[in-house]
Write a structure and sequence with these properties.
The complex is a heterodimer of chains A (245) and B (221). In chain A, 73% of the residues lie in helices and 0% in strands. Chain A is mostly helical. In chain A, helix 2 packs across helix 5 and helix 7 runs antiparallel to helix 9. The mean pLDDT of chain A is 90. Chain B has a single domain, classed as MetI-like fold (Orthogonal Bundle). Helices cover 82% and strands 0% of the residues of chain B.
Chain lengths: 245, 221
Amino acid sequence: MNYHWNWGIFFEQIKGGDETYLDWLITGFGWTVSVSLSAWVIALLLGFLVGTIRTAPSPWLVRLGTAYVELFRNVPLLVQMFLWFFVVPELLPRDLALWVKQDMPAKEFITATVCLGLFTSARIAEQVRAGIGSLPRGQSMAGLAMGFTLAQTYRYVILPMAFRIVIPPLTSEFMNIFKNSSVAFAIGVLELTFQARQMQEDSEQGIETYLAVTVLYFACAFIANRVMAFIEKRTQVPGYITSAK
Amino acid sequence: MLSGFDFSVITASLPFIREGLLFSVKLTVIAMTGGIIFGTLLAMARLANLGPLSLAATWYVNLMRSIPLLMVILWFFLVIPLITGTPIGAENSAIVTFTAFEAAYYSEIMRAGIQSIPKGQVWAGYAIGMNYWQTMGNVVLPQAFRNMLPILLTQTIILFQDTSLVYAIGAKDLLKAAEIAGKNYNRPVEMYVFAAIIYFVICFGLSYIVKRLQQRIAIIR
């Protein structure tokens, strides 16, 4: 293997600029975290909403929820990125489309966040539906028997339990969202993968570059895992759902 | 700006798109076959008490599963030419990458499958005089494979969607072909939508088949 190692590359200045390569990676890390966390908020809200709708007593609501999930689950994330970036603006009214294309601030960031958020929400919806489905029927019956309305039964009985049940799959989804945010490079978000490609081409120190970026992704996944484990522990219902640990 | 869809560009670029789709399918099939074979070996290595080999298999699977596929694609594209000394092209690099990457995911499925077989089956195998490989090949793996078939297929659907990521190294798959066609005819919107529809139809159809299969297996059990 003929490779010229240079571990000092991170502190060298980029060609024709006064930033160092380390600055590029820090910027990339910042965007990766921003996109992932913002998308996570969207994904949680919509995921729980759609997942709940899919257990509703109205068949039309269920069908709507199913269609939503199938739509987002059966098209690759990268293709969805392009659809949001290139196709959706064309479908908007003329003035709005022009504004989105020319003047919208942080266009790439917003597009990537919305896309990743909706994509992940479909997967969360599926888990929430399964979580609600795994509750004994007696729970909602008890809620209704006590005089709760259906909405109250969901709010005070079903959803708090379902949330705890879906925490383990949510953990892997939270780790996935950091990994999936890498796809945002394709529409020009300056996140880690984008910076990795740029730095590799610019510095020609591919191995060092990719190693640093891989470690950063690894750190994201690890921290995400620990945060969810902490939440899982704090929200445990004593004597009801025992964690596997 | 764009008033109405122009369907003529889709018919005009069909042969081109077909070529891209064929590569996507080829990549999926090779990575699935190789991934299941290597994945099963990885799972067996993890479950057998082989010391460093089991540890290495565990590390490999966990490492692959904790970094983005895009980074793995970039890694292989960078490292393979450094090792072999000659560039092998984006398409071949993609085939190697996906086989190695998917092996980690298939191995987790096969591990669950092997663990779902009651211990008594293995003991029965040994009791009638079979060795490790015979017991695995004739008793454990056929059942594990069968139990896990729906999940293996679901993983393959995910694999098919993930092949679109070879975009990053410029391999000509379905998405790349659609993009090129869109640029050539200056109608990117139609081509992206068309590609999305093809992906959707294939994945939706496959997941419907998986659902049916799951029901059939459930009934026989």
